[in-house]
Amino acid sequence: MKQFSNAYIFGFTAIICVVCSLMISVSAVSLRERQERNKLLERHKNVLQACGLMGFREKLSAGDIEKRFSESIREKFLDLGKGEYIEASEYSADSMKDAPEGNPAGILEMPTQAPVYHVIKDGKIAGLVLPIYGKGLWSTLYGYFALDADADTVRGITYYQHGETPGLGGEVDNPKWKDRWTGRKLHQEGKVALKVIKGKAGDAAADPHKVDGLSGATLTSNGVSHMIAFWMGEQGFSKYLEKFRAEAGARASGRRRGATRRGARKCSEIQARPQERAARNGL
């Protein structure tokens, strides 16, 4: 049996390691663009599901997801501290700050800027989708929370990334549980009141501020409640939601004034017609 020197063995091993490292690096670089596209597609799918434009059980191709997203969703960017829109060119996902110590969501850092998604129907804003995240039992859950145009009525919730226990905290992915959120109310007497309770809640009319708990997953349920309270509260999107509601009220008032003016013009035209006919007939 041929014997190899130690130098040969170490040299051969080093060459194999270098070749394998190069192959892995090339694969990682070549697949990175596809991986980023898939991540973006997954987020777009979750935005659509959160606001009810795609069913939780609905299967769509990547092209159909992007088509539906581009037709019905408009992405905007916010300065969270001011609650005001900023230009897309000003937005940076890496713009972070320390989160308030002991915050209910259990997060250490939070963004100073954030995306927000407008749901568009008939050229008007019909709802909002906001990003949320926070600690569960074993992991940080990342998802989206959607509201109607009144910034109070819940359209839906969904999570696109977490590491909770399947069958327990992982039930945040259960379509039946997510369906229970629709129609609930975020606020009570001006404060965030929506929470996941222990046990069963009534329907949206009977228990507008309560959602069914996750069986056997109390800490995950609490985590969901805490992240809703945090992100919809003063440290999160509260300032933006207040301004959005004010703007929505102004838009509605403007539409009512416009309808009133059109109605008044129509009445004037109807009243003027007999006089015009009389004038034409020389009466």
Provide an overview of this structure.
- There is one protein chain.
- The protein has helices spanning 6-50, 62-72, 175-179, 218-231, 238-280; strands at residues 73-79, 84-86, 96-98, 109-111, 113-121, 124-135, 140-148, 154-161, 187-188, 191-192, 195-196, 210-211.
- The chain is globular, with a radius of gyration of 27 Å.
- The protein contains 5 helices and 12 strands.
- The model has no long low-confidence stretch (mean pLDDT 87).
- Strand 1 (73-79) and strand 2 (84-86) form a beta hairpin.
- The strands form 4 sheets. It has a 6-stranded antiparallel beta sheet with strand order 2-1-5-6-7-8. It has a two-stranded antiparallel ribbon with strand order 3-4. The chain has a two-stranded antiparallel sheet with strand order 9-10.
- The chain is α+β, with helices and mostly antiparallel strands and 283 residues long.
How many strand units? 12
Order of helices and strands: HHEEEEEEEEHEEEEHH
The whole-angstrom Rg is: 27 Å
- Helix residue percentage: 40-55%
β-strand amount: 15-25%
Helix/strand/pairing class, anyone?
alpha+beta
Low-confidence stretches: none
Overall 3D geometry? globular
Widest sheet, order of strands: 2-1-5-6-7-8
Mean pLDDT: 87
Please, what is the oligomeric state?
single chain
